Amino acid sequence: MRVGLVGCGYWGRNILRDLKALGCEVDVADPGSAYPIAGARRLVADLAELADDLDGYVVATPAPTHAEVITALAARGKPIFCEKPLTTDAASARTLANTFGGQLFVMHKWAYHGGVQALAALAQDGELGPVQGVFTRRLQWGKPAAKADAVWELAVHDLTIIQAILGQLPPVVAARAVLRGDEMEGIVATLGRLPFAHLEVGAHWPGTERKVRVAFRDGLAMLDDPLADHIAVVRGAAPAGERHEPETLERRPIDTEWPLIKELRVFVKHLGGGPPPPTDAHAGAEIVAALQSLRQAAGAAR
Questions:
Q1: pLDDT digits (tens, 9 = 90+) for 26-36
Q2: Distance (Å, whole) CA 214 – CA 70
Q3: Gene3D superfamilies under this entry (predicted)?
Q4: Domain boundaries, the chain
Q5: CATH superfamily of this structure's domain 111-256+289-297
Q6: % of the chain with per-residue pLDDT over 70
Q7: Does domain 2-109+261-280 correspond to CATH entry 1.10.3720.10?
Q8: Which of 30, 164, 250, 282 could be a cystine partner for 8, CB 3.0 to 4.6 Å?
Q9: pTM of the predicted structure, to 2 decimals
Q10: pLDDT confidence band for 237 (50 / 70 / 90)
């Protein structure tokens, strides 16, 4: 397959690496990356210079440029895989999804994580009863994207996880932001009632935490490390009047392949006639709308 990659910066170089590992020839359009670009079949400064023989496109430019880039590429009639978030406002995301829905997909890598997929399977099969709540925590020190605050850059992942487990995103009930000047450095929010979701993200937290816990009627399931090779499952409720770790904690193996190469493999297979990626533009637009609602509930202008 021949793929056009638009944008090859901090994350785009990882996309280039994995597309090459999947056997693709990759043409890169980037006006001047700060990172080395090695392995491209051809390097051009503008997407208009990309060759006409490409089978599809991956967009890895800054989020505020996505709508313009997607609109320009869509005229070529080939599938497009866009990095998250789809855009930075709900109206443009809906327009793109409604206009290019069958052609456009979003790279929400956490939907492809083996642990998240295992938690979603538990929610769907009812083994532990219905879901009561989903708890996510994503804390770190700093963020790579200078043009996006912590909510746009981090909460998008947690909303993806919640969407994958619950099958939809509940409405925002409450949100509180951690601010530095006018910029959000973190947010704590609750979505829905039953099932509900509680998320906490922050970019001003020494160390790194990535946790997903799902409370079911008849037990708990947890992914407490994104690099873990298992999820943990606990059945029943904690006994009253006691305080100790559960005696029966089951560790279930999960797929540990990196989510980025998994989602790119799905897209490449689609270019060859396979099924489309499950993370379509409408799901991406739903996440953008939720991000905007979170920010507004926390007092941001947009």
A1: 999 998 765 66
A2: 35
A3: Dihydrodipicolinate Reductase, domain 2, NAD(P)-binding Rossmann-like Domain
A4: 2-109+261-280, 111-256+289-297
A5: Dihydrodipicolinate Reductase; domain 2 (3.30.360.10)
A6: 93
A7: no
A8: 30
A9: 0.92
A10: confident
